[in-house]
Amino acid sequence: MTVVAVLLGQESRSQGWPELDARAYALVALSHLPVALRGRRPLAVFAAVQTALIAYVTLGYWPVVCTFGSMLALYTVASVRPVRTALVCAACMAGVWVYAGVVSDTPSMASVLGQALLYCSVLVWFGHLARRSAELTRRLRAEQAERARRAVAEERGRIARELHDVVAHHMSVISVQAGLARFVFDSRPDRARGALGTIADTSGEALEELRRMLQVLREEDPEAPERAPMPTLARLGELADRVRAGGLPVDLAVTGTARPLPPGVELCAYRVVQEALTNALKHAGPAHARVELRYGAHELTVRITDDGQGADPARVPAGGGHGLIGMRERAKLYGGTITVGPRSEGGYEVRLTLPTSAAERGGTGAAEAER
Fold first, then answer.
1. Taking CA 27 as the corner, what is the angle to CA 80 and CA 102, rounded to the nearest 5 degrees?
2. Cα Rg for the chain, rounded, in angstroms?
3. Which of 11, 35, 128, 287 has its CA 20 to 30 A from that of 300?
């Protein structure tokens, strides 16, 4: 802008104004160079360029030469300061323009006044729009950061449920088998060896699942070994065998035509069965459990029952209940329903119903979770 103003100043004589001298060029520089600092000190820069402009006009030079810096300074003030402050600065700038018209004996003061009001209004308006746009951008970034924070919290909750399911189930089996091995170590060595073998297999599977979940938390590494697949309903047989080895007989029944389901739905059903059998293994006592899968046209129904004595409230440790909360959260996430409670004929029952299509689950939350 300084270069353009200097080049324009060389046309002063042809426009009927005095030719610029060293003093005039110094004022031209003072009217434009400070705008380089307008982002840090917008009001100070505006005051500086207006002061230089007043001095330039008072000495009788062509006013147009020194208008660029003041206009940009006014726009900057309007874009970073409240509207009231911008209007005050606009009034000052308009006053300087009118003063320039008076000093130069301009015959058309109405034109000068109209230009002053028009330019100042346009600069303040566009500066105000820029300020609003910046505020909206800041709000958008804050909302995006909040959404990211919530997503991280939800992911942590999901991982916490996964860890609870894995650790609670496998450690329950290991605890039962360790107690059995210690009890029959001298009298039934073969039975003790079988229990230790079950402990080894169960602990290895638990470590593999924990390793898979921890790998999810790390950045993708193209050279990293392939992770084990997520548990699916096809692995319910392995789960039942593991629980049987822990001392709880389990029957598995499937009705309807088995078909591939969305990964999230299968994982939800698997974890609910795992949690229900773990609770039966820990609390049911001498009992028999049954897992029923029913494939409907548009839903999957899972029913886990046992004929044991149920949980004794006096034996449940304080702070428990996370497994039940996790089951309800999983069912809610995929648009399903779950009921948990004692049966009238004795024992305990867990019933889970899950829609098997995204349209019936409703909303995009479940679809996003499946992805």
1. 85
2. 39
3. 287
